[in-house]
Design a protein that fits this description.
Helix content is about 70%, strand content about 0%. It is built from 21 helices and two strands. Strands 1-2 form a two-stranded antiparallel ribbon. α3 runs parallel beside α15 and α5 packs parallel to α13. The longest helix is centred in the middle third of the chain and has 41 residues.
């Protein structure tokens, strides 16, 4: 039985929907995570990779989109049915390191190695957040310039940070969900339309371009950008973690209930697992179409124009994807859209961080798991401080893409860890009645091997080639 009042609140069990439309109305966490997924990885790194490599790495883009969603769905299955948070699940792995006792002499729970690895990744994650909010600041500055207000990219980024802080501070899960639905859907639709309209211009993608992109060629000179894109595109390691917290905020674990011996628990668990799976696959469809649209625009327009987005001109360069296909009038459409998508990424990412950081303090023993009120105070504190910290990072180093690549590369190394943890939790701690079928476990194992080989190959290329 779960003892965490954050994940499972007594008296909130609910029967799952049994129809397609009933499940559709119960979705939500995937949309919130889409605010982070369809964001910096697509508009900055995917379009940037297309600008650098042309259509050659189309197969890599598809691979980056599709390989991680199974891990997202299955680690969410564990969280929803166990009542563990994501970090508590990581901390159940063998290989634990002890901590000094509390001030009152009470011993602390030892910490497992994935938690320590995640702590190392906290700082690259801050750089990524700085790069993303910096891109949003560049777009915001371009929006304000016609109004006679020129803040420069740095000050506009600080303003964007303040806006994020206010929205997260005043909003609960439902409000965040509604805001991100509008932002993500609007920009994704506009970009997909733009990619289709590209086909009526001299930048159109031909059948030969697509065939070239599906030949599994991988020019080594693009490995840094490609691995960064792999780590940031689709459901990255940060979004896999974030998704579990948004599932908790939505209420899925509470709907299932924390007592597996209770009559009806198994049927409720299986029903809400189906809702989670549908949520994941809807997210996958959205991100695949949006990611492909950005890649085609980057490869079709920017690559053929010889343009590479970088530095303070990143957003201006990317705007050519719209202006070259829709006409000059679309410049401000792109600027508004770029701001919305990058701003939604910051909103979603920092919103999830405000949930996972207090959970880290619980895991490390600084907050008692039963103290839900103190956890909520830390959520508020994180929301106030971290948007400004992220803006300060960009203010110091105004180059969005390198900042994002640095953090995304570390995120790529966390992906095989998450796959391994998912397998371990399913085999050792998940209730056998709600485990996935054996073929799913085999697919997770194969995914782990592929991800681990990719990480090893990247290290080899960077050190020896």
């Amino acid at each position: 039985m779960s003892d965490d009042p954050y994940t499972i609140q007594p008296g909130r069990t609910r029967e799952p929907p049994t129809t397609f439309f009933g499940r559709l109305k119960s979705l939500g966490p995937g949309i919130v995570v889409s605010g982070s997924i369809v964001g910096s990885g697509e508009i900055l790194l995917t379009a940037g990779l297309g600008a650098a490599a042309g259509f050659t790495l189309l197969w890599w883009v598809l691979f980056s989109c599709w390989i991680k969603s199974l891990i997202q769905a299955e680690i969410a299955r564990y969280v929803v049915t166990s009542g563990d948070t994501y970090l508590r699940a990581l901390n159940r792995m063998p290989g634990r390191i002890g901590l000094p006792p509390r001030r009152d002499g009470e011993p602390r729970e030892p910490i497992s190695w994935p938690i320590w690895l995640g702590l190392v990744g906290f700082f690259p994650g801050l750089l990524t957040a700085g790069g993303i909010i910096g891109g949003a600041g560049q777009a915001l500055n371009l929006i304000l310039e016609p109004l006679g207000v020129s803040l420069g990219g740095g000050l506009a980024t600080v303003l964007a940070g303040l806006l994020v802080m206010l929205l997260l501070w005043t909003g609960r899960y439902k409000r965040i969900e509604r805001i991100l639905v509008v932002m993500v859907m609007s920009f994704s639709f506009a970009t997909i339309v733009c990619a289709f309209l590209m086909q009526s211009t001299e930048f159109r993608a031909t059948v030969d371009d697509v065939v070239l992109g599906l030949q599994f060629d991988f020019p080594v000179e693009y490995i840094v950008l490609a691995i960064g894109m792999y780590g940031a595109t689709g459901v990255a390691s940060g979004e896999i973690s974030a998704y579990t917290y948004w599932c908790v905020e939505k209420g899925y674990p509470s709907y299932v209930g924390g007592d597996p011996t209770e009559p009806g628990w198994v049927s409720r668990a299986k029903g809400w697992i189906r809702v989670v799976q549908m949520d994941v696959w809807v997210t996958l469809v959205i991100l695949t179409f949006a990611t492909l649209a950005f890649y085609f625009l980057g490869a079709g327009v920017l690559h053929r124009l010889g343009l590479q987005p970088e530095g303070n001109e990143t957003i201006l360069t990317l705007a050519n994807m719209y202006t070259s296909t829709l006409g000059q009038w679309s410049f401000f459409l792109f600027i508004f859209a770029a701001f919305f998508i990058l701003f939604s990424t910051v909103l979603s990412g920092l919103g999830a961080g405000s949930r996972s950081f207090p959970d880290l303090l619980v895991t490390l023993g600084f907050i008692r798991r039963s103290n839900l009120e103190l956890r909520r105070k830390w959520i508020t504190g994180y929301i106030i401080v971290m948007p400004l910290v992220s803006a300060g990072i960009y203010f110091t180093y105004q180059a969005p893409i390198p900042l994002i690549i640095f953090g995304a590369t570390f995120g790529a190394f966390m992906l095989p860890v998450q796959a391994f943890v998912t397998l371990y939790m399913q085999r050792t701690r998940m209730d056998p009645r709600v485990r996935p079928r054996m073929w799913v476990s085999w697919c997770i194992g194969a995914t782990f091997v592929v991800m681990a080989v990719l990480c090893a190959w990247y290290i080899y290329v960077r050190l020896f080639v």
